[in-house]
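User: Assemble these into one structure.

Assistant: Restating your components, then the assembled model:
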Amino acid sequence: MSKDIVQIFDTTLRDGEQVPGCKLDTTQKLVIAERLETMGVDIIEAGFPISSPGDFKSVNEIAKLVKNATVCGLTRAVKKDIEVAAEALKPAVRPRIHTGIGTSESHIKHKFNSNKDAIIERAVAAVSHAKNYVDDVEFYAEDAGRTDNEFLAQVCEAVIKAGATVLNIPDTTGYCLPSEYGAKIKYLRDNVKDIDKAVLSCHCHNDLGLATANSIAGAINGARQIECTINGIGERAGNTSLEEVVMVMRQHPSLNIDTNIDSRLLYSTSQMVSQKMGMLVQPNKAIVGSNAFAHSSGIHQDGVIKNRETYEIINPEDVGVNESSIVLTARSGRAALAYRAKKVGYDLTKLQLDEVYQEFLKYADRKKEVIDADIHDIISSSKVNIQSVA
Ligand code: KIV
Ligand code: ZN
């Protein structure tokens, strides 16, 4: 049975770029956009055109460059925003305007000092106005995660009628539990008239570390677009991480959903974005962190050397990492030492290994990590005859 495709909407250049101190210039954004397209991203959110002349220019240049992916620009539910976005997106082969408004009690009362009817009116007016410029209009119900489902369904129904092609259901504050977020998507599928005329989209923030789980719960319940960023960067604790949702779907064929992403480009893309934004990837980051395929305890190393799958659920080559690494520390065992020694040219017999291992432990207790150059030193200072092991 063929799998359903979940579209990947990358917002590294918009929501991701909202990280303090991580501003990118137009040239850097173009390089990243080109890479996202090559990797198979379906929709690139290129920026928020009305926010600054620089952002307008970036969206406009990306719209000229990108040929296969949809190029999207963000707006508020404000006429002028929509007109400026439409202008920036003019050269795009597949332009999309992303417009919307807050729908939770808190947004309606405190942000807009408004009421539910007026919010629906503004939402419909924004979508209708955007439809004058492009066919593809995505509507976001900001803070949908904390919006009452019944009202959210009313908003969705109204904007579908006005021509929205995609309904973005953001968990703006990262509050929802996966079961709750999944149930919200299911509620909309079951209760919104003409829901099949639009694609439901997950846009989850990571304040409780649940962004990936929530997005996957949304997809399991029928969402067919996930909004995410490279390395999960974004406001506060960030957005859903692109590499994580892609690999969750790929590693779990029973879900029957997949993406168009070439996963072999995940690691290099993560590195590219990290370098351009000057934002380090945490070493234990799933999929792309420097420790994601590194094994350092003796028990794990022995298992991985015997069979990689003992402690790895992903083949590192599938995400563009050359191979798993066996890190030598004072917690490593003989199997790891023999493995690494062999890689640098020493095929140790069991007796030789026993000798060298004692020397290695003394060395490793002094040093956090033993590297290839150290292995030569350790072997020379052990009692083993170097001639017989080289
Ligand atoms: O988190 C959010 O609600 C957003 C919207 C503007 C789409 O980023
Ligand atoms: Zn967001």
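Residues 100 and 317 are 40 Å apart (CA to CA).
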